[in-house]
Amino acid sequence: MPSVTLGDAHGIAVLDFGSFLDGSARDDVARAMVDSFKRVGFVYLVNHGIPKDKIRAMFDWSKRFFAQPMEVKQQAPHPPSGTHHRGYSAPGVEKVVQHIYDKDALQEVRAKALDVKESFECGWEESKSMPNIWLPDGTLSGFKEACLDFYWVGMVIKLELILPWGGSVPVQELLDEKITRIDAHSDFGSITLLLQDDVGGLEIEDPNNPGQFLVRPSLSSFPSGASPLTWTRTRLPLQSRAPS
């Protein structure tokens, strides 16, 4: 039987997840995923089941949404609450901080560099605790439907992934720490699926070589990051995603 490990991308295993989905090598894929999570906290998955045309179509919808005038995007505003993660967040609204709990220290970090990212978040349409926030009907028609369709495509893969282990930012301003785009952080959820376009941006610090960063973008694979510190009794450590 062919190996489920197809290669190595800068220290991160490239795995054939199709062998897990079709049942031909579920245990081998599971072991390889956990091994890569233990070493670097990430794994590249190919043959993951999400068609390329759906990925490209969703990136197209994303470009169309963010190309809208600010006053249009603000018609689906992210609530001021830090617990309702839905809707549109404009540049400068959010600032990622990690393990800083002193109020004065938080203010200092947030004032140091403006976070210039913008984002749109959506999820399960029937959620009562965190309802989606959409543009008004008739504005960017088809966007809502495309988001919900892609949400369920990703949800199917997410449920499968639980089973194995249970470009416009000025570079100099980033280097000078005048602005940021999602500072280094560890995710709160169990699994993060991140699809990247050809611009990329995700960086993963190599836990064995601090200061060196991994991951290059690819439409045919996605980096999958594990956040199971508690679930696995620290067997799989948290890893930091660097600025995107």
From TrEMBL:
| InterPro entries noted in UniProt | DIOX_N, IPNS-like_sf
Recorded coiled-coil stretches: none
Metal-binding listed as a keyword: yes
Q: GO molecular-function annotation terms?
A: metal ion binding; oxidoreductase activity
Pfam families in UniProt = DIOX_N
Cite the entry's keywords alphabetically: Iron, Metal-binding, Oxidoreductase
Specify the domain of life of the species encoding this protein. Eukaryota
- Residues forming the Non-haem dioxygenase N-terminal domain are 12-134
KW Oxidoreductase (keyword) present: yes
Which PANTHER family does its entry note? FE2OG DIOXYGENASE DOMAIN-CONTAINING PROTEIN, OXIDOREDUCTASE, 2OG-FE II OXYGENASE FAMILY PROTEIN
| UniProt-recorded name of the protein | UPF0676 protein
